[in-house]
Amino acid sequence: MNKENYKFGYFGSPFFNDEDTRIFSRLEDSYMKSVIKENDDCYVIDVEVPGAKKEDIDLKLEDGYLFITYTVKEDNTENYKYLKNERFFGKLKRSFYVGYDFKKEQIEASYENGILRIVLPKLKPEEKEAESKKILIK
Q1: Could you give the count of Cα atoms lying within 13 Å of 120 in the half-sphere of its Cβ?
Q2: Which of 39, 50, 99, 138 has the fewest CB atoms found within 10 Å of its own CB?
Q3: Considering only CA atoms, which of 34, 30, 18, 44 is closest in space to residue 92?
Q4: Where do runs of H (alpha helix) occur along 4-124?
């Protein structure tokens, strides 16, 4: 596939476009690989966060973006001097533009076996119309 196929993100939809953050998130991309899928009822985002504890992962929804922040803590319990350390320690952040076409109050997240799963229930067409508001011009 060429770059033009990803013009609007995954599946040709701006829902999955995180291109604007991609330049600054190469490290996060390599540590937090994702799988994005959908069915008629919801979008599902699976993110690899191996070795994490639930309390070290933070999810935030703001201005149509879903932010995932993960803190990798260094294990300093033993008194050793490192000869070589290829592990990353610190804060990782990944974002996805998810828009507004889902039920915010019904978002679910779970973490099991190193996979963070986020489920975004879709709004039905009639619910989308109910959320829109006609503005009268005076």
Answers
A1: 25
A2: 138
A3: 30
A4: 19-22, 26-31
Place of tokens 């879709």: 122
Helices and strands, counts by H and E, the chain: 3, 7
Which three-class secondary structure state does DSSP give residue 40?
coil
User: Is residue 34 classed as helix, strand or coil in its secondary structure?
Assistant: strand
Which pair of structure tokens corresponds to residue 123? Answer: 């709004």
Q: Determine the 3-state secondary structure of 107 from DSSP.
A: coil
Strand order in the sheet with 57-62: 57-62, 65-72, 90-97
Q: How many residues does the chain have?
A: 138
Which tokens in the block code for residue 32? 């937090």
Q: Using one digit for the tens of pLDDT, what is the confidence trace for 24-81?
A: 445 545 678 899 999 989 999 999 988 888 888 999 998 889 999 988 777 766 777 7
Torsion of CA 32, 38, 43, 44, to 10 degrees: -40
Q: Strand runs (DSSP E) across the chain, as ranges?
A: 34-38, 42-48, 57-62, 65-72, 90-97, 108-112, 115-121
